[in-house]
């Protein structure tokens, strides 16, 4: 299927629109161009649910090199080098070994520590992605532990989870940097809101918590309603552009990304790359039919 897709020009173009390439060599110029346009970046080396220790080790090795390459790219781009790092990596603990049986969470935590230690050396940030709900407790615990040494480490929070508002309060109280997103996995009603209106309402409740109390909230949404609410709450809470940031996926709402930057707001683009793009795109489509409309909409939005 993957080979077939890359042979069809239209679908290959779709892949290229959302994925920055298969290798670091392809990724780096894309990241540099975004930095030159005034945007910050967060780069995801694609891969998840690793069932092989060797693969987890290879992912760590790739991330170590990626951190170096992004730091170098950042240095070559002129512009203000503020306290807020312009380059970041996003990672999934399941790619670092979390699903390797009983020892998985400990292996992933050790790998996370290794990457944070490298990142701090290079003035690069790290955010841990949120995966399916069966991993949430382990992920939050790994981030809590790592933050004792790396307090800038961030985690993504999915507002479709019924526990999201409670998590937002606890994480904000602990001073955690939080990426607020709606959530992209197909989850059961026992743990997740199923109706769009409920997910949006949860997003707005969590957003209010973060904008009132949290350190550096990150609004990861393409939704005009969420962006408008974030701007209103920022004004209400006297938050300046450097006190929070917007985040969007690579290839989605590019014009809106540029508009926010031109108005002085911080905006970070989440850029996936790697050979595992097929899984990234297909899983998003297969797990949640609404994601098909999400990608199709992006093709018509200029
Ligand atoms: P949503 O899909 O709810 O659509 C609302 C409105 O936004 C639309 O009506 C339209 O106006 C606009 N819109 C949305 N998509 C558009 C498009 N493609 N083109 C034009 N307009 C569009 N998920 C997860 O489970 N774990 C994670 O770790 C992350 N990480 C993450 C990082 C970042 C930086 C982002 C932006 C997103 C994630 N996600 C994620 C994905 C997230 O949970 C969610 O699935 C998508 O962002 C879609 O939700 P939205 O809030 O963007 O809009």
Which keywords apply here?
TIM Barrel, binds dihydroflavine-adenine dinucleotide, 302 residues, 8 strands, 51% helix, 12 helices, alpha/beta
N-to-C SSE string, H for helix and E for strand? HHHEHEHEHEHEHEHEHEHH
Give the proportion of residues in helices: 40-55%
Query: What hetero molecules are in the model?
Result: dihydroflavine-adenine dinucleotide
Report the span from N to C terminus.
28 Å
Which strand order do you get reading across the main beta sheet? 1-2-3-4-5-6-7-8
Q: So how many helices?
A: 12
Low-pLDDT segments: none
Oligomeric description of these chains: single chain
The biggest beta sheet is recorded as: 8 strands, parallel, barrel
Strand content: 5-15%
- Please give the CATH class: Alpha Beta
Number of domains: 1
Under CATH, the topology can be stated as TIM Barrel
> What would you call the structural class?
alpha/beta
| CATH architecture tag | Alpha-Beta Barrel
Report the C-alpha radius of gyration, rounded. Answer: 18 Å
């Amino acid at each position: 299927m993957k080979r077939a897709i890359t042979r069809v020009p239209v679908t290959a173009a779709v892949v290229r629109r959302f994925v920055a390439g298969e290798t670091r060599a392809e990724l780096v110029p894309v990241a540099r161009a975004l930095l030159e346009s005034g945007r910050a970046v967060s780069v995801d080396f694609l891969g998840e649910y690793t069932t092989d220790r060797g693969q987890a080790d290879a992912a760590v090795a790739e991330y170590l090199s990626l951190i170096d390459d992004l730091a170098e790219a950042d240095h070559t781009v002129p512009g203000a080098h503020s306290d807020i790092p312009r380059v970041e990596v996003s990672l999934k603990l399941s790619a670092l070994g979390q699903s390797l049986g009983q020892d998985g969470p400990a292996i992933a935590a050790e790998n996370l520590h290794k990457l944070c230690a490298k990142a701090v050396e290079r003035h690069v940030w790290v955010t841990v992605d949120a995966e399916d709900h069966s991993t949430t407790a382990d992920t939050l615990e790994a981030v809590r532990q790592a933050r004792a040494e790396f307090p800038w480490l961030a985690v993504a929070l999915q507002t479709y989870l019924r526990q999201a508002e409670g998590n937002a309060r606890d994480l904000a109280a602990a001073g955690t940097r939080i990426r607020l997103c709606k959530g992209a996995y197909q989850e059961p009603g026992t743990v997740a809101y199923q109706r769009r209106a409920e997910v949006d309402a949860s997003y707005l409740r969590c957003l209010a918590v973060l904008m009132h109390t949290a350190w550096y909230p990150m609004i990861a949404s393409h939704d005009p309603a969420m962006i408008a609410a974030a701007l209103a709450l920022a004004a209400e809470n006297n938050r300046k552009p450097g006190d929070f940031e917007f985040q969007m996926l690579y290839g989605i709402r590019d014009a809106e990304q540029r508009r926010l930057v031109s108005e002085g707001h911080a905006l970070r683009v989440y850029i996936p790359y790697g050979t595992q793009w097929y899984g990234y795109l297909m899983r998003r489509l297969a797990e949640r039919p609404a994601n098909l409309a999400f990608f199709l909409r992006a093709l018509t939005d200029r």
